[in-house]
Specification:
By secondary structure, this protein is an alpha+beta fold. The protein contains 17 helices and 18 strands. Strands 9, 10, 11, 12, 13, 14, 15, 16, 17 and 18 form a ten-stranded antiparallel β-sheet that branches.
Length: 528
């Protein structure tokens, strides 16, 4: 996507963003100031890469935690989606609001849809509909409004300018720093440890030469990771196994022989994306670029992350740490997370994240950033070695679980311990996923899920501040896929709540051979 770099265009955008300084308190502190929030949950990423994600269009629902902001009786919210949201999904979120009449919150919520399920980014769809733009413009109070999004691209910037609503997100001219190659440059500048690897290349032949050079620098390497520069959730990664290439190892063959052998082996890469092929992957290299990176081996290895925020004043705030749950053929695909990260490396994560955040802030970055790491345990020292893997300059998979917890409890994150405390003084923990997916769940409608939640008491209890919050409910019927955040007062309780949800869903979708489920196995509202 081409950036419009005209000086007047950028200046107008920067002037709009400068208004956020006046509104920062009401944005972050959950106070009772009047505010109009425009939520544009457009997943504005490379569409070819997004097609690898089942039900990616429903990822527009991941920002529905924003509806919890309606607990402020002076907040109005406009939420735009590609297709209309199921009414029961909206009711579900509004009923989470403590102390606010449902009807009062509903009257302050405007839901709009473009009725377009094409893979084109939602922001672009809105820009192509002038009447919808005008309707949004009329709904917003200019001096009290701001816009939030999933990730910031020229489309979100153009939408901000069209509506004259400041965008609380990254200036798209800085997007490079959230790519795989840009991340590596930031790590080097910030003095944060990261794996050896290559610069950005756009041709498979150049990639093979870079891989050969990396092998020569580290002759004991067993594997390498090849990453598309703008891959999403690990789907753009592939693993290169060097062990079958011993005949061209450093010290045995020449650089050109090594490069040729690696190039020939690309067709046999272990792709992390389902149904990926070398023909498709190599065409993406020409389009997006790619890097090669040393694969970090280790008997005990984890993938923690740190999430921060850069305020409109340029301050860096650490928001949370997580241990990520990874899957796929080689543990490269993001599935979910647990909060907080292990106490053995929680505080060092915060400090490394702060270093990255300061470097990003100096370049003018704004709002969310996340840094993914690998943590490898050394049994001799009982210490964990942390190496940074990539930066996400967008709302990631750990954003909505944490913001859901924060908005539901109105609690605080304690930097000294890396723990989160609710207003009632309880430390809170959760296990979350975007990828609870099973074929047996296909066909469940949102109303069916609500029946199951009610019958088995799976909902979030505001009195104990424990339970499960569901998301991606629109993905359930077609793809058998669901997201959830299970909150507890201990890590063990959070995991127990999470496992209970899975067991209940499995039991409710269990079908006996040659028969349907018995009436006793179904919620009362299913018995007809």
């Amino acid at each position: 996507m081409e950036l419009d770099l005209s000086e007047s265009h950028l200046e107008q955008f920067h002037q709009l963003q400068a208004q956020l300084r006046l509104r920062w308190h009401s944005i972050e502190e959950l106070d009772f100031s009047p505010a109009d929030i425009l939520v544009i949950p457009s997943v504005s990423l490379d569409q070819k890469e997004l097609l690898k994600i089942d039900g990616f269009l429903h990822y527009e629902e991941r920002l529905l935690f924003s509806l919890i902001r309606l607990h402020n009786p002076n907040t109005r919210l406009v939420y735009v989606t590609s297709q209309p949201l199921h009414p029961s999904v909206i009711d579900y979120y509004l009923q989470l609001l403590p102390g606010i009449p449902f009807s009062h919150a509903r009257d302050r919520l405007l839901l709009l849809s473009v009725y377009d399920s094409s893979p084109k980014p939602l922001s672009q769809k809105i820009l192509e509909r002038p009447r919808l733009l005008e309707r949004i413009r009329r709904a917003m109070r200019p001096d009290q409004s701001y816009m939030i999004c999933y990730n910031s691209t020229p489309s979100e910037r153009d939408l901000s300018l069209q509506l004259q609503v400041p965008l609380f997100a990254l200036d798209p001219t800085l997007l490079y720093w959230g790519t795989k190659s840009g991340s590596r440059e930031i790590f080097a500048e910030a003095g944060v440890p990261y794996p050896d690897g290559s610069k950005l290349v756009y041709h498979p032949e150049s990639l093979a030469q870079a891989a050969a050079a990396l092998w020569e620098r580290q002759p004991t390497l067993q594997r390498m990771v090849i990453k598309l520069n703008e891959g999403f959730s690990g789907e753009g990664n592939a693993l290169l196994d060097l062990r079958p290439l011993g005949r061209v190892a450093p010290g045995v063959a020449s650089h050109s022989e090594r490069s040729d052998a690696i190039y020939q082996s690309f067709a046999g890469l272990r792709f992390q994306g389902r149904d990926e092929t070398w023909a498709n992957f190599s065409s993406s290299i020409a389009h997006l670029g790619a890097i090669v990176e040393a694969f970090i081996e280790g008997e005990t290895k984890r993938s923690p992350s740190v999430q921060g925020c850069i305020t409109p004043y340029g301050d860096v705030e650490i928001l949370s740490t997580h241990d990520q749950i990874l899957g796929g053929p080689d543990g490269q695909i993001y599935l979910g997370c647990s909060f907080p990260a292990d106490e053995a490396y929680r505080l060092p994560l915060q400090e490394l994240g702060r270093k990255v955040g300061r470097c990003l802030a100096e370049k003018g970055a704004l709002e969310r950033f996340g840094v993914d790491f690998l943590a490898v345990h050394d049994p001799e020292t009982n210490l964990w070695e942390l190496q940074a893997i990539e930066i996400n300059l967008r709302k990631g998979g750990t954003t909505h679980p944490f913001m859901t917890l924060k908005l539901l409890t109105n609690g605080r994150y304690d930097l000294s311990s890396g723990l989160f405390y609710s207003r009632q003084g309880r430390s809170k923990y959760y296990t979350a996923t975007d990828n609870l997916q099973k074929d047996r769940y296909r066909g469940l409608l949102p109303n069916d899920l609500m029946d199951i939640i009610a019958h088995h008491h799976l909902h979030f209890d505001t009195s104990t501040e424990t339970g499960t919050i569901f998301h991606l409910m629109g993905c359930l019927s077609e793809f058998g896929k669901l997201g959830l955040t299970s909150i507890g007062n201990s890590p063990q309780q959070a995991e127990e709540i999470y496992n209970k949800v899975i067991k209940v869903l499995d039991d409710e979708t269990h079908i006996q051979p040659n028969s349907g489920p018995s009436a006793s196995e179904l919620p009362m509202t299913w018995r007809r």
